[in-house]
Write a structure and sequence with these properties.
single chain, alpha/beta, Glutaredoxin, six-stranded mixed beta sheet, about 25% strand, transport, redox-active center, disulfide bond, Thioredoxin_domain, protein-disulfide reductase activity
Length: about 100
């Protein structure tokens, strides 16, 4: 999983040729720490977009730009735009179903 910053977000997410799943997270977020192994487990699987993470403490401008109010929040970007957001998924099955709906 790639660490995303305001320096690489435009190139690596908005201009990407393929969909990119972005998780907005923070190191102090307990639920984010529980979700991380799930994201690592599915990263690289068929049908799963490239995954990147934004630490909202280090990148508050990106969090504001995408109206992140609760973490973890997941967005899938395609062609420079994102679809519906997923907030704090409670299972891998729910996460994968959302991904397949978005892609």
């Amino acid at each position: 999983m790639e660490t995303l910053t305001k320096q690489n977000f435009d190139t690596d997410v908005l201009q990407a040729a393929e969909p990119v799943l972005v998780e907005f997270t923070a190191p102090w977020c307990v639920y984010c720490r529980r979700l991380a192994p799930v994201l690592e487990r599915i990263d690289g699987n068929d049908g799963i977009p490239k995954i990147g993470t934004v630490n909202i403490d280090e990148e508050p401008e990106l969090a504001r730009q995408y109206n992140i109010e609760v973490i973890p929040t997941l967005l899938i970007f395609q062609n420079g735009a994102h679809g519906d957001r997923l907030v704090a998924p409670d299972s891998q099955a729910k996460l994968e179903a959302w991904i397949h709906e978005q892609c």
